[in-house]
């Protein structure tokens, strides 16, 4: 008798999470409006490829709701952009906002790659 393959009934058992980036948002001072930090905290972050960016062909813009607030730092954008372009499940997680910090250290976030195995 052949035993059927068993599957987990808990979907989370089939999800692997890989940390791709942890750090501060780049360009915040150029894109965010004055005193916008509290508004950012109310919305999930979204990542959008910006391949036509003249400064970084691997650029990834970061949005809070429909407002662009900066970029993934250039030092990390190539690896993440390749995964996004391949259709990977990439998600940004807002960790903290520091309203009184210098402008380049106001928004701390993580980027995760979620892999589902069945």
UniProtKB/TrEMBL annotation:
Keywords: Hydrolase, Metal-binding. Residues 18-115 form the HIRAN domain. It holds the Pfam family HIRAN. GO terms for molecular function: hydrolase activity, acting on acid anhydrides, in phosphorus-containing anhydrides; nucleic acid binding; zinc ion binding. It comes from the Bacteria. This is HIRAN domain-containing protein. It comes from Flammeovirga agarivorans. The lineage of its organism: Bacteria, Pseudomonadati, Bacteroidota, Cytophagia, Cytophagales.
